Amino acid sequence: MAQQLWTRSNKPPGLPDNLLLDHNALLAVTAPHFETQPHFCQRWVRQVVQATFGDQFDEFWEPTAAATGQAFAVDFRLVVDPHQGSQPGDLLYKLTGSGAAGHVAIRILGNRVAENSSCHWNGRDARGLRKLTEFGHADLIVRLALE
Fold first, then answer.
1. Which residues neighbour 25 within 8 Å (Cβ) at sequence distance 6 or greater?
2. Is 13 within 8 Å of 94 (Cβ atoms)?
3. Fewer CB under 10 Å: which end of the chain, C or N?
4. Could you tell me how far CA 96 lies from the centroid of its own chain?
5. What is the arithmetic mean of pLDDT over 1-22?
6. How confident is the model at residue 2 (pLDDT cuts 50, 70, 90)?
7. C-alpha–C-alpha distance, residues 57 and 14, integer Å
8. Is 39 exposed, middle or buried (0-12, 13-18, 19+ CB in 10 A)?
9. What pTM did the predictor assign?
10. DSSP string of the chain?
């Protein structure tokens, strides 16, 4: 039986928001209806966040990962001090690279990231997982968990 995406209304009792997003990001690496083309990391992350939290964070989404990261940074309420480090369910932004578009991934359990990246492109799908150490330094950490 295929696992289902969880929202705040159908998640297991007591599951914190960060693990809710972690669960959905892991599923969205292979689930249908999520962006598969390379160079659309921002679209893929937005789809995962919207599947998890609905339109709650729509005010922040911009055309590129770099611009969205900047929108979160300007608001600052959801930004984590980089000295605290990231947790599963955090959005990890690289504000440079991929041209001027930047890059974004979702940190998941096991010190990994789930992402849509050209490094995973196999001719059909750019979604995949990689080690956090392979992802490297995040310029900005955003924690959407409100609990």
1. 48, 89, 106, 108, 114
2. no
3. N
4. 17
5. 87
6. low
7. 22
8. middle
9. 0.94
10. -------TTTSPTT--HHHHHHHHHHHHTT-TTS--STT-HHHHHHHHHHHHHTTTTGGG--SSHHHHHHHHHHH-TTEEPGGG---TT-EEEESS-TTTT-EEEEEETTTEEEEE-GGG--SS--EEEEEHHHH---SEEE-----
